[in-house]
Amino acid sequence: MPDSDVILETRGLSKEFRGFVAVKGVDLKVARGTIHALIGPNGAGKTTCFNLLTRFLPATSGTIVYRGEDITRASPAEIARKGLVRSFQISAVFPHLTVLENVRIALQRKRGSSFDFWRSDRVLRAYHQRARELLDAVGLQDFAQVPAIELSYGRKRALEIATTLALEPELMLLDEPTAGMGNEDVERIARLIQQVAKDRTVLMVEHNLGIVASLSHTITVLARGEVLAEGSYQSVSKNSAVIAAYLGTEHG
To answer: N or C terminus of the chain: which is more exposed, having fewer CB within 10 Å?
Structure first.
């Protein structure tokens, strides 16, 4: 894969916790404009990997390169400003505000004007149109005036994606976007992921292998902190090491 096609790359990425190696020598290449899934049995190191990529945890060793720039020691805020944003870390943190107000606040964060929250309606109205566009994009246009706390679980996730889109990510990290959902919500979120991936790159950790199979261009399988296999769903699902790693674990 030519370097110009790679938006995110890790080289020898590792994380140790007091002698326990959670992530071990992970080499990952995420191609621009694709949906790339990170899967593996429980305890495989997927969430730790996400925490390393967004610098919520410092790596013990290895390098993280985003758009050709070494971001291994950048702060989480710097990484978000560069366009690498993890969804659900910026969730609808204001349950008693409306859906529209939550998205409007996320738009203010993008501009770096956190104190706009305390300013007049006239100032906040400037964000109104863009907030409504984002709600349309995630299918929440009819819920604009509903307090976030009253949304169903699946629609809360859609709101979280809208607040992430407000930060204009070039690479969006989705951490188990369909966890705990019923079939109807899973299908809605799957359609939404496909939609938001049209003009950006998506890296997701996901347990639902049906979603992984239908959405992903490339799949990286982790087991015990190491890359076990990588490729299309067809190739990794037939890999004997992958089958052995999943044997006896919950992965539906």
So the answer is: C
pTM value? Answer: 0.88
Task: Report yes or no: 217 and 234 within 8 Å, Cβ to Cβ.
Answer: no
Mind listing the pLDDT tens digit for each residue in 181-193? 888 889 989 999 9
Report the pLDDT value the prediction gives residue 97, as an integer from 0 to 100.
93
Radius of gyration of the chain (CA): 19
Torsion of CA 39, 40, 44, 45, to 10 degrees: 0
* Domains in the chain with CATH codes: 1-88+170-252 (3.40.50.300), 91-166 (no CATH)
